[in-house]
Amino acid sequence: MGAQMMKTYDETVAAIHALPRLAKTGGHERILALLHALGDPQHDRYVHVTGTNGKGSTASGIARIFEASGLKVGLYTSPFIMRFNERIMIDHHPIPDADLVAAAAATDAAIGQLRQANPEFAVTEFEYITALAFWYFHEQQVDIAVIEVGIGGDTDSTNVIIPLVSVITSVGLDHAKLLGNTITSVATHKAGIIKPHRPVVTAALPADAMAAVQKRVAETGSDWLVAGRDFEADRAGLDGWGQRFDYRAQTFHLSRVFIPLVGAYQVQNAALAITASRLAAKAMNWPLQPQEILRGLAQNTWPARMEKLSNDPLIVIDGGHNPQGIAAMLSAVKQVFKDERVTLIVGVLGDKDLTTMIAELEASAERLWLVPVPDNPRAEALADYPDAGKLRTFASWQEALSAHLDEFPDEPVVLTGSLYLASAVRQTLLGGKD
After folding, report:
1. Would you say the CATH fold of 307-430 matches that of 9-298?
2. List of E strands, 268-371
3. pLDDT by residue (tens digit) across 9-62?
4. Which of 52, 119, 181, 397 could bond 371 through an S-S bridge, CB–CB 3.0 to 4.6 Å?
5. Spatial CA neighbour of 87 closest among 73, 103, 76
6. Which DSSP helix (H) or strand (E) runs through 281?
7. H-helix segments, 4-159
8. What is the pLDDT of residues 209-226, one digit of tens each?
9. 366 exposure class (CB count in 10 Å sphere: 0-12, 13-18, 19+)
10. C-alpha 134: how far from chain center
């Protein structure tokens, strides 16, 4: 049999999505075997970011800062909003289709090689994409890559690296089936990304989470920098559809830092990004300048995080997909819309903590409408939402949006509850536009 023909882009993405989602064991033996067959590309320079919420914006902020300083920067995140390629970026440009096809061919060849010794060898979808990303960043000779954890930390496929810095943005309850349903168990998973003698930067976490991180830090001998103790962001205020704040660490201050993101939590994420970038730069002996930090963060837009898609009518999308995300979205809505009444069009996946999320939403003064998440087998059926009988429901987000535009044309609308819903809305309303 001759050499296989290269798959097309569509065939490549379809083959990746056809891989199993979850494996029977949560260890790293499969991905390590695959990475070894790919030449062990995971030994490069990385920043590793985990957190229940905020890890995408924070990882992107760190990447933007290093890009502004002239480095070539990889960024690995999930899920994607518009197109699969967004998960693997260099200098914030998604991997080109041809490069994805070539990287998948290299990964397939490595799997083929492993199957000669062990015909049963197989990896999950996330293991495959993670290995492919490490190989691609290595092949492209990035100076540093920022890696966002998929779920949790210690058993996550990304946790095969020894990063220059680890970051924990927040700890809340999400993915209870995989991470346990206590703050301690979730934080213990996330603290698994802290490596011996490598610094870790965290938000001010709940007490139980702080204790779990403290335990890990004691084991690893790592320096631990905590928001509010070792560095802080203060004097934050709205500036258009963005915010300004002052950053202070022991010997380093930045004033009037601008970020094009709203929501108080984004100021915290930016402070984490500044702190982590400075630590990583120091580890690389890279002369990161204050103006580069400012320039990088000023460019750090991140789709579907309180993102304004249209001014008139005022349409916002947000991927608040767990109780912490919903609370953050509601506080951002208060921040930007003050006393204006807002319609919230909400669609949630069935494996989330719906009861808490709907209770939080109902406690707010906003108008709450429910829709299903489109094209997702994990979507919650409308009839199964708590209080579905009392609340207005629509068969699709499109119907809900047109009802809002008919009935309340002068009031803002936020579509939220799942990144998959936010992604569907963004793809439909923005289409090819970025």
Report:
1. no
2. 307-310, 315-317, 343-346, 367-370
3. 999 999 999 999 887 677 899 999 999 999 999 999 999 999 988 999 999 999
4. 397
5. 76
6. helix 264-284
7. 9-17, 29-37, 55-68, 97-117, 125-139
8. 999 999 999 999 999 999
9. buried
10. 17
Distance set, CA 356 to CA 9, 325, 353, 390 (Å): 41, 11, 6, 16
User: Measured in whole angstroms, how far is the alpha carbon of residue 76 from the centre of its chain?
Assistant: 9
Rg (CA), the chain: 22
pTM across the whole model: 0.93
What's the CA gap between 297 and 276, in Å, rounded?
13
The amino acid at residue 8 is T
Of 369, 407, 361, the residue nearest 391 (C-alpha): 369
What letter represents residue 131's amino acid?
A
User: Residue range 101-128: average pLDDT?
Assistant: 97
Closest by CA position to 417, among listed 350, 319, 309: 319
Query: How far, in Å, are 78, 333, 343, 396 from residue 96 at the CA level?
Result: 17, 36, 38, 33
Using an 8 Å Cβ cutoff, are 329 and 410 in contact?
A: no
d(CA 344, CA 307): 14
Q: What H or E segment, with its residue span, contains residue 273? A: helix 264-284
**Residue that is written with structure tokens 């080109």 in the block:** 96
Classify residue 366 as left (phi > 0), alpha (psi -120 to 50) or beta. Answer: beta
pLDDT score of 173: 65
Query: CA–CA separation, 231 vs 432, rounded Å?
Result: 40
Q: What is the pLDDT of residues 348-407, one digit of tens each?
A: 887 777 888 889 999 998 999 999 999 888 787 888 888 878 899 999 999 999 999 999
Structure tokens at 227: 């928001």
Q: How far is CA 333 from CA 258, 260, 307, 371, 422, in A?
A: 19, 15, 11, 20, 16
Residue 141 near residue 72 (C-beta atoms within 8 A): yes
The CATH number of the structural domain formed by 307-430 is: 3.90.190.20
Residue range 9-298 forms a domain whose CATH class is: alpha beta
Domain ranges across the chain: 9-298, 307-430
Return d(Cα 174, Cα 347) in angstroms, integer: 16
